[in-house]
What we know:
The chain has helices at about 30-35, 50-65, 90-100, 110-115, 155-165, and strands at about 5, 20, 25-30, 40-45, 70-75, 105, 120, 125-130, 135, 175-180.
Amino acid sequence: MMAVNTPICDFGWPAPDFALPDTDGRVRTLAELRGERGLLVMFICNHCPYVKAVLDRIIRDARELASLGIGVVAINSNDATEYPEDSFANMQSLARTLALPFPYLYDAEQAVARAYGAVCTPDFFGFNHALALQYRGRLDASGRAPAAPGGRRELFEAMRAVALTGEGPVEQVASIGCSIKWRAGAATE
């Protein structure tokens, strides 16, 4: 499984709108999910070893960011036909088992992943209160390894700054993960 890095942050880029079903079957929208001070959009999936390695930290950070007025949402855009672990039913099971503190949305048509330019799982897009991009970096320096004791929580620190100032850090390190699993003929252009 080849690792892929995200592009650098395009500061001010506007968040593309979406309307996708969550694991409870409700259709959720960008406007509904944004927090008073911003929104973190994460592209994740069930099967990726990078996501599995950091999901507990994602959950921790999502809970803390909510208290700062940052909305959090996760989107799975992978081809579930080729990667059955990423099916909607398995997303529902994961959301229940882990009591995810954020909506987990299914992008079956992969249109939202294309609109965002998502390239890997996990891929993080941190927007301010005006839904202008301020962070496109990694969760932390751990990759697939366990987090180092006392290691920097880069995503959390960036989104806390976004909540407090409306701006993300100038210095950002790209996220790394497994490529989005595009349906045959559906890859980004």
